[in-house]
Write a structure and sequence with these properties.
Blueprint: H1 10-28, H2 34-45, H3 51-62, E1 70-74, E2 82-85, E3 90-98, E4 101-110, H4 116-147, H5 157-174, E5 178-185, H6 188-195, H7 197-213, E6 220-225, E7 228-234, H8 238-253, E8 258-259, E9 262-263, E10 268-274, H9 281-297, E11 303-304
Parallel strand pairs: 10-11
Antiparallel strand pairs: 1-2, 1-4, 3-4, 5-7, 5-10, 6-7, 8-9
Helix pairs in contact: 2-3, 2-4, 3-4, 6-7
Bound molecules: guanosine-5'-triphosphate (GTP).
Guanosine-5'-triphosphate binds next to strand 5, helix 6 and helix 7.
């Protein structure tokens, strides 16, 4: 997985060193015994905390022991299943766990059956994956909690800043349109005042689920603060953004949210803006914010664009 941003890729540097060492060792004395493979793989797997990278290294290292055509890894924390190589007819699967903690499902496949002795070695080799995999999952969880709003699960302001800067750079380089919409819940204070803060929190969670359900998985949903959210739409021009914002508005209006069995209608006002050549993140957000306030002044529960 390529690293983004201006960082030094220590992982690949260390990998290259490790690979170089391995190549040198292979030239002098072939690495053949199970213990040698296991030791080498153990060292290699410690060079990264990136889940994809750890699994890639395991798949590559495994080939010294048995030839496998494909490997698939599933864990809800990892998002979509991660596939390496290509899937073949014969498969073996493992549910990985450690000290009661679930570490995912791993499946290997190839064209010919796995022999019993191969499976036994594979199971022994899986031990090398345990701690690197657990550490990579913990690292991923730590990153996610640093970038997500704890109440609603939407991205937080830090995630918005990072992704917006990146998407603006990309849109300017590729010439693709980029739009965003700011959404502010109408009269949210009344919900808190009437039902209490805890119910207000539940209403915000329901709203985020509702907005997320009307987006593509490449779209970003972020909480700016309070009851204000941003939807970031890559490769989307002003007309398409208006349609998306209108769809969001309607889905919030139709949301069947109940408090103690009582329906609680919610609406939101939305303002959108599309990237111009002289925009930066602040000017783009400010323009959408101005439109959102126009929507509030215009009577709320409406969408205003540029
Ligand atoms: N329950 C809950 N309420 C929050 C949270 N963050 C902000 N609020 C409340 O959201 C309300 C926002 O109120 P206002 O800014 O007056 O806006 P509004 O009532 O939505 O009215 P308009 O935006 O003008 O339609 C305040 O009562 C905040 O306390 C939160 O995390 N949970």
């Amino acid at each position: 997985m390529p690293l983004q941003g201006n960082t030094i890729d220590f992982d690949s540097a260390r990998m290259k060193l490790a690979q170089g060492d391995a190549a040198r060792r292979r030239r002098s004395k072939p690495v053949t015994s199970f213990e040698a493979i296991q030791r080498h793989l153990s060292l290699t797997l410690q060079t990264s905390l990136e889940l994809d990278r750890v699994l890639e290294m395991f798949f590559a290292g495994l080939q010294a022991l048995l030839q496998a055509d494909g490997m698939e890894y599933r864990h809800s924390a990892a998002g979509a299943p991660l596939s390496l190589g290509h899937r073949a007819l014969h498969r073996c699967s493992y549910r990985l766990s450690h000290a009661g903690g679930y570490l995912g499902e791993l499946q290997l496949s190839r064209q010919t059956r796995f022999a019993e002795n191969e499976l036994a070695s594979l199971e022994a080799l899986l031990g090398t994956l345990l701690f690197p995999l657990r550490n990579a999952l913990m690292y991923r969880e730590a990153l996610a909690s640093a970038l997500n709003d704890t109440l609603t699960g939407a991205g937080n302001r830090l995630a918005l800043n990072q992704n917006l800067e990146r998407d603006i750079r990309l849109a300017k380089r590729t010439g693709q349109p980029l739009s965003l919409t700011i959404l502010d819940v109408d009269h949210f204070k009344q919900i808190n005042d009437r039902f209490g803060h805890a119910y207000g929190d539940e209403a915000l969670k329901a709203l985020v689920n509702c907005v997320a359900a009307s987006l593509r998985n490449v779209d970003g949903l972020y909480r700016l603060g309070g009851e204000e959210f941003v939807v970031l739409l890559i490769n989307t021009d002003a007309n398409a953004c208006h349609l998306v914002a209108e769809r969001i508005r309607q889905s919030i209006e139709q949301l069947q949210f109940h408090i103690d069995g009582q329906p609680l209608p919610m609406t939101a006002s939305l303002g959108h803006a599309t990237l111009r050549a002289d925009d930066d993140a602040t000017s783009l957000l400010n323009r959408a914010d101005l439109r959102m306030y126009e929507a509030k002044r215009g009577g709320r529960n409406r969408v205003m664009g540029q």
